[in-house]
């Protein structure tokens, strides 16, 4: 499949590399490709500078949000939550129309210090905002509840005996995303329901952040233990 | 131990009966014992009328919030989140001073329809509000992330291979609560940190509610899968 991953941070890079390894044709979308390609300072999350990372992943093309989104079958939103609507706006509603959009972002707000808070919450979610802003796009919220390493290699922890959620209004889009997740090794994909259920998946982040603090590692995940 | 369980809904009844079975001396606290004792209509959550339940649990005394809290070593707040501060106020700061308060409530707000929203969120939690209102009480937030049946009998699901969280400022209080949880069968008690981490444990409720919808049963729990 031709996949556009929007966002060049740790999550975007990790997903792009993993989809590429699985044989997909992957393009990374960014606001200003020349600026991103030239970056020699470390990533804000501590990853290597983009230039250094890209040197080892030259087969993954870097392009503008618009060009990346125009030339693909499935789009992944891996931009940071505060910038997602702007990035998708730059990609363009017409280019996103009809496509499946895998939204893995979290609406974290760092403006009030650490730990970040979530915005929106309760009666709204970033997943829904994206769906509403791009009504012809088939948004599926997923993967936002775990770290990037586990997103693409769930088997590295407990042989993938943990859970991932999907939320979205389009059953066929959730099926396509579920297939992609399974190809990465996810064994327990739970369909929470329509896109409003993204409120639940997003609001788990504050617990994730406290667990990160308490356990001293981001290498954990939620498993929904149930019968059957 | 002498335990006062404040709140006579499903959660309060279930915890009171379980602690009593474990050999503790349990008193249930309510606003108006005569009114509660006389209730012949079903509980709002679908449980039997209090009168009927109490007929089978006559060894569990029913008293006012104040009398129950005064005559115990540990207090459980199992009142509904919207009423918790008032109930604890009726119990009285002096009677709660120095005691361990196990807070299992959730600040669910049903005023905007279903599903309920959480209030407060993000920079505040009900656990913290209680701790701030009763600074001499040793508040431990716990058990709010699962249904009442699993709170008291975790082994009924996957031999208790799932997790429960504790949040609180007082290490000794968390140790006492952890001991009680283990006596109920909990095998994985995760100390999230100080009482502000209750924000994380409370904000998982929206996901719990969507999982309840998606799975069609409240009989599930979160397991934090990690190494070691």
UniProtKB/TrEMBL annotation, chains A, B:
Domain Pyrroline-5-carboxylate reductase catalytic N-terminal stretches: 2-107
Gene3D superfamilies found in the cross-reference section: NAD(P)-binding Rossmann-like Domain
InterPro entries the record matches: NAD(P)-bd_dom_sf (IPR036291), P5C_Rdtase_cat_N (IPR028939), STEAP_metalloreductase (IPR051267)
UniProt keywords, alphabetically: Oxidoreductase
One family name in Pfam for this protein: F420_oxidored
Superkingdom of source: Bacteria
Transmembrane segments: none
Disulfide bond in keyword set: no
Region spans: Disordered: 30-49
PANTHER family recorded: DUDULIN-RELATED (PTHR14239)
Entry protein name: NADPH-dependent F420 reductase
Species lineage: Bacteria, Bacillati, Actinomycetota, Actinomycetes, Micrococcales
């Amino acid at each position: 499949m031709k996949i556009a991953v929007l966002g060049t941070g740790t999550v975007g890079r990790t997903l792009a590399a993993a989809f590429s390894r699985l044989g997909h044709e992957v393009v990374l979308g960014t606001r200003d490709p020349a600026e991103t390609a030239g970056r020699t300072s470390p990533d804000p999350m501590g990853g290597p500078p983009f230039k250094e990372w890209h040197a080892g992943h030259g087969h993954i093309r870097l392009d503008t949000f618009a060009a990346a989104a125009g030339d693909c079958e499935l789009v992944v939103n891996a931009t940071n939550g505060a910038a997602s609507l702007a990035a998708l706006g730059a990609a363009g509603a017409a280019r996103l129309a009809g496509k499946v959009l895998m939204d893995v972002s979290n609406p974290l707000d760092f403006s009030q210090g650490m730990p970040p808070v979530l915005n929106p919450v309760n009666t709204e979610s970033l997943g829904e905002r994206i769906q509403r802003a791009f009504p012809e796009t088939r948004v599926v919220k997923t993967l936002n509840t775990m770290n990037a390493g586990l997103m693409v290699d769930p088997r590295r922890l407990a042989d993938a005996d943990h859970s991932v959620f999907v939320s979205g209004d389009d059953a066929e889009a959730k099926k396509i995303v579920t297939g992609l997740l399974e190809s990465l090794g996810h064994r327990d994909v739970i369909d929470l329901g329509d896109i409003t259920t993204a409120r639940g998946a997003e609001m788990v982040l504050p617990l994730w952040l406290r667990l990160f603090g308490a356990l001293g590692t981001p290498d954990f995940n939620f498993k929904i233990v149930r019968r059957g």
